[in-house]
TrEMBL record:
Keywords: Iron, Metal-binding. GO terms for molecular function: metal ion binding. It comes from Actinoplanes regularis. This is Pirin. InterPro entries: Pirin (IPR012093), Pirin_C_dom (IPR008778), Pirin_N_dom (IPR003829), RmlC-like_jellyroll (IPR014710), RmlC_Cupin_sf (IPR011051). Residues 44-148 form the Pirin N-terminal domain. The keyword Metal-binding applies. Its cofactor is Fe cation. The lineage of its organism: Bacteria, Bacillati, Actinomycetota, Actinomycetes, Micromonosporales. Belongs to the pirin family. It comes from the Bacteria.
Length: 316
């Protein structure tokens, strides 16, 4: 897959070897399989967090694997205009191109290994769609969208964006060179990703070669989850089987163990839980039902913005 790679992983910084006696490896708490569905105007997704209690996801709310699908000419689809309030959307493109436009006049394009990080805050309207040339030609489309909750104190801040190019991600490998680790946000063994967050989190895209093992140091106060994008392997010290569409949520400890049977591609994430009440419905994530009701009222009255008259053209 064209997400950022290197010709020789052995030139990359390496994770430290962990002391098996002093390290507390996290057990797998729960394994779930993502059901398939459709989003927006009809593009296929896997709902990665289905069946997992919110307290085990905190500070995350929702994760969709978009695709992987090879569209024929005329088939690529996106989303219609829609609102958000109270959280952040993190869109990570692995294959293909996605254009973005918002009600504040912003817009842009992300492609292989780029991330578009939108802090919705007090509210915004936006649209995500493939560029017209991709609709005409068709092509491969594969990505992720993660919803990161905002703490109560930040829910009504002004919207903002982070445009993270794939080349900005920190790249690491394991002591034996068996893995490529892309750090999108957070900090792993002293290596930081470019994403800036209100709640401390780690976001990693990891590729393990067949037979390779990853012993990943992890902040003890963070939760930890690993979602399989492709391939087969095992998770945790009890070596529970994982494959495409499976999510492993981990218990407590200061390290995560993952091992590949075939080439294994994963999205590994975790963060410091916010531990605040969550009221979530549709495109809004607030603390109370009254705040949800206010969000819908504000949207209906146009307080979250209006749809611009023209679409922002795609730019490379």
């Amino acid at each position: 897959m064209p997400a950022i790679t290197v010709d020789d992983v052995l030139v990359l910084p390496r994770l430290p070897k962990l002391d098996p006696v002093a390290t507390e490896y996290r057990p797998v708490r729960r394994l779930t399989s993502a059901p398939s569905g459709y989003e927006g105007e009809g593009f296929p997704v896997r709902r990665a967090f289905a069946g997992v209690p919110l307290n085990e996801l905190d500070p995350f709310i929702h994760l969709d694997q978009m695709g992987e699908v090879d569209y024929a000419p005329g088939e690529p689809k996106g989303t219609p205009w829609h609102p958000h309030r109270g959280f952040e959307t993190v869109t990570y493109m692995i294959d293909g191109i996605m254009d973005h436009q918002d009600s504040l006049g912003g817009g842009g394009s992300i492609s292989n290994s780029d991330t578009q990080w939108m802090t919705a805050g007090a509210g915004i309207l936006h649209i995500e769609a493939p560029p017209e040339h991709l609709v005409t030609s068709g092509g491969l489309f594969h990505g992720l969208q993660l919803w990161v909750n905002l703490p109560r104190a930040a829910k009504m801040i002004d919207p903002k964006y982070q445009d993270i190019r794939g080349k900005e991600s920190a790249l690491l490998t394991t002591p034996d060179g068996g893995a490529l680790i892309r750090v999108i946000a957070g900090e792993i063994a002293g290596h930081s990703g470019p994403g800036s967050t209100f709640t401390p989190i780690n976001l990693l895209h990891v590729t393990l070669q067949p037979g390779a093992r990853l012993d990943l140091p992890w902040q003890p106060e963070y939760n930890a989850l690993a979602y399989v994008l492709s391939g087969e392997g095992w998770a945790g010290t009890d070596m529970l089987p994982i494959k495409l569409g499976r999510l492993a949520t981990f218990g407590s400890g200061d390290a995560i163990r993952l091992e590949a049977k075939s080439e294994l591609d994963l999205f590994v994430m975790g963060g410091r839980p916010i531990r605040e009440p969550v009221a979530h419905y549709g495109p809004f994530v607030m603390n109370t039902k009254a705040e949800l009701k206010q969000a819908f009222e504000d949207f209906q009255k146009g307080r979250l913005g209006t749809v611009p008259a023209t679409r922002v053209p795609h730019t490379d």
